[in-house]
Amino acid sequence: MLLDLGYKVRGAGRDFDKCRWLIQLFEEQYDKGAFEFVAVENMSSEGSYDESLSGIAGVIHVASPTQFSSDPNEIIPTATDGVLSILESALEQKSVLRFVLTSSSVAVLEPSSQSLEVTSEMWNEEAVQKARAPPPYLQERAMAVYAASKVQSEQAMWDWLARKDPSFKANSVIPSFVFGRPLDVQSQGYPSSSGIPIVVYNNDPKKMGEFIDNFQPFFFVDVEDVARLHIAALLHPEVANERLFAFAGPFNRNDLIRSLQHHFPDRQFPEEFPELTQNESKILPAKRAEDLLKQMWGKGFTSLDDSLRANLEEYF
């Protein structure tokens, strides 16, 4: 999206070969030199980003450990050290004006929380307590460890900013459950939550039972709205030291089925659960995010129907 706006972009990843498809994709779609790739093998080591940030005006830090280990001593320090490492590198570059961190809804609330009034000051301390509990580190702890890594890595950023008082401004973007069009289906398939609509479309009873039927009612957002909010956090002159909540609205298992039945009326889908309710939490900061979308792009959050349709467009 930044490339579409005419900006030059430098991307960093651990493995050049694994990112080759992305480099080729951007070389085909944009002018030569619009995108360059830099390999950063150990993102949590001191100085690892020094070279990649040379001459950069804005930084978006998306990387975070996602291997879902149940050991908090493995995951949480890697996440926090990665954030602190790139912040220190940004501090050394006088050209840096903005820093944006990709956080997560699980840094704020548990998916099982169904009736909260969520503010921008809230943190998912419940996950931290679960993750930091004494061993044994059983696999069922993995989600709490991941959530705790998002809590403590974002907190590490805000603490660092308070201590260092850098010349650049910083923001975080907090996506909820992300649907929408993958960047390149042939190369990456349907990663992460974009695979959920595929499971519902295929109506495989085993996979429905494993991934969908016990799904907690939560909140969704379209991937392109997440990208737009990162750009707002990076470029909007009045967005500084904020947490932008990318929460378009509530959804549950029945909404997924109903939406896909609407788009594909001739297909057979699972029965709805008649007693299923919506998540009733009030995400107060989401209005600020939607106002920014309207101000910068002329429309608010993408609907669930439109997001799911885009998610499945290239599946056939």
Automatic annotation (TrEMBL):
- State any single GO MF term: oxidoreductase activity, acting on the CH-OH group of donors, NAD or NADP as acceptor
Coiled-coil regions in this chain?
none
Which InterPro entries does the record cross-reference, listed alphabetically? Epimerase_deHydtase, NAD(P)-bd_dom_sf, NAD(P)_dehydrat-like
Q: Where is the NAD-dependent epimerase/dehydratase domain?
A: 3-239
Pfam families for the chain: Epimerase
The residue ranges crossing the membrane are: none
Q: What is this protein called?
A: Aldehyde reductase II
Q: Which organism is it from?
A: Penicillium desertorum
